[in-house]
Design a protein that fits this description.
Length: 338
């Protein structure tokens, strides 16, 4: 029975409306009778009252309230440590769920065959669904495996596979924003058995940029990638784009967004330089870094220069560039929310 095999843990902090919306969705879903824990990261609003209200409605719901706000990333690791079931599914409090067709996921959990079950299409376009495969095969076939799993609710995983080494390195990687990165890495090294759900069950609906600068997220991702031993996989994982011009454009767009938000980016540029050197050494990728410095020092000039170059060659690319800068691109928004 799935109720005996799956434990759901939801982490929350000071988002009572989002939390209530999430709890309402879960209450109507097929996992309502599973073990269910809400970890409140010492919220200062009506979150505790909402938790108590819904505790009466969920058969197996418990509430854990942290004595202090330990931050979202450590709270994720605390959720991993809390689970005692065969499978664990860690959720955020602000996503959307579609439980209309998830019998395949229930069957996969009941079979106990997959090590992880991917229940989202975050960062994936047109990949095969309803697929039983392995982590290495997904990566080899061009899947943005690391990027997809960077979204916390993306996977249901076998709890005991999240070993002490993943927890230990996870706490060290908390400043880099990806406490679960070593677990993703571990799944590749051990070639986990993976099932990809037929339908996307959970979707990120937060279309707002995070409270921290985009460069912070980018530097954190690059520093996290140092955990990847294979240099080719590391490079593939660091870059969101495939071609060299797109890679350059990606970093320059980030710089322009930060400058338009009047942020002081000098410290992040230094961190970005260090991350580049640590990952690639003194390679041709430093050319990207040189361009980043130019964009940081003369954003207005570079902005006009790029626009003129795009308008001459490709009007569609010009429009995409402008949407990215303005924050109107849905793809751009999803990139920076982990």
């Amino acid at each position: 029975m799935i109720e005996e095999k799956l434990e759901i843990i939801l982490i929350t902090y000071n988002r009572p409306k989002d939390l209530e919306n999430t709890l309402k969705q879960l209450l109507k879903g097929p996992f309502v009778n599973c073990k269910f824990t809400v970890i409140d990261n010492c919220s200062t609003d009506e979150t505790p009252e909402i938790c108590l209200k819904y505790q009466q409605l969920f058969p197996k719901m418990r509430i854990i309230r942290n004595k202090l706000n330990i931050g979202a990333n450590p709270n994720y690791l605390r959720a991993v440590e809390t689970s005692n079931s065969l499978y664990t599914w860690i959720l955020c409090d602000d996503d959307s769920f579609d439980f209309s067709d998830c019998l395949d996921v229930i069957d996969a959990i009941d079979s106990e065959k997959p090590d992880i079950i991917i229940v989202t299409s975050h960062f994936q376009q047109g990949w095969e669904r309803g697929l039983f495969t392995s982590s290495r095969k997904l990566l080899k076939n061009g899947s943005r495996y690391y990027h997809t799993l960077s979204f916390w609710p993306a996977i249901i995983f076998k709890t005991d596979l999240y070993d002490s080494n993943c927890i230990h390195k996870g706490y060290f990687n908390v400043p880099n924003l990806y406490p679960h990165f070593e677990f993703i890495n571990h799944s590749i090294e051990e070639d986990f058995k993976v099932y990809v759900s037929k339908k996307e069950i959970v979707k990120n609906i937060d279309e707002h940029h995070p409270g921290f600068p985009l460069l912070h997220s980018t530097v954190g991702w690059m520093n996290s990638c140092l955990l990847i031993k294979d240099k080719e996989i590391r490079k593939q994982t660091i870059y969101f784009k495939e071609t060299y011009p797109e890679i350059i454009e990606y970093f320059c767009v980030i710089i322009l967004i930060e400058k338009l938000n009047n942020r002081n980016i000098f410290n992040y540029i230094i961190q970005l330089k260090n991350a580049f050197i640590l990952n690639f050494g003194l390679s041709k990728d430093l050319f990207i870094l040189l361009l980043i410095y130019i964009f940081a020092l003369a954003p207005a000039f570079c902005y006009e220069l790029v626009l003129k170059a795009y308008m001459i060659k490709d009007k569609e690319r010009t429009e995409r560039f402008l949407k990215d800068i303005r924050g109107e691109s849905s793809e751009n928004k999803s990139i920076f929310r982990y």
